[in-house]
Design goal:
about 45% helix, four-stranded parallel beta sheet, alpha/beta, 9 helices
Amino acid sequence: MPDILLINPNASVATTDMMVGIASAEAPAGCRVTGRTAVQGPPMIVNEDELNAAALEVLKVWRAATGEGWDGVIVSAFGDPGVALLRREAGVPVVGIAEASMLAAGEGGRRFGIATVTPDLVAPIGARAVALGLRAQFSGIRLTEGDPRALAADAKALEDALAQAVQRCIDDDGAQAVIIGGGPLGQAALALAPRFEVPVIAPIGAAMRLLCSKLAVTP
């Protein structure tokens, strides 16, 4: 079974551990998911400058881990920093969580929205949907209020705020599926899914499922 490297571009080991737990729960039996964390940068990426800087950090993490026999890589930050760079040199399938969740949300032509906490990342997130050819299905982004890092530190407040954003995606934008847009929001995404009749997409799980399909293994 495959060995998967999960790279967290957010410089937080605790967040990496959370991400690995979510990915492992979606992985097939016998699959090993190993997390590696960006050495430099913020504990949570919240703007475009940080996202762009994270691409080089992702490449550094990969190069430090090269030679350990990886079968595939997940880049676990929404916005997919470094994915294009890794695909040019990794030699194994590379999946970003934004890419994977958007493809999952748009399956069957569904209209989908994104609920997230980072207003300064609206432009690159929207650009990702366009780059994937999903402009016509993308209903837009609904944001929580307040400082994203402070909100992410309070699990109950984060879940409640994101729930409101999900509801707005559905009620105001006509979304038929909603992505929780952020790697550090992984636990909130899982908690929110049972609360809505439309699919609420957790990006880390979506990335693991997409990577398994590329590796021809069953999650």
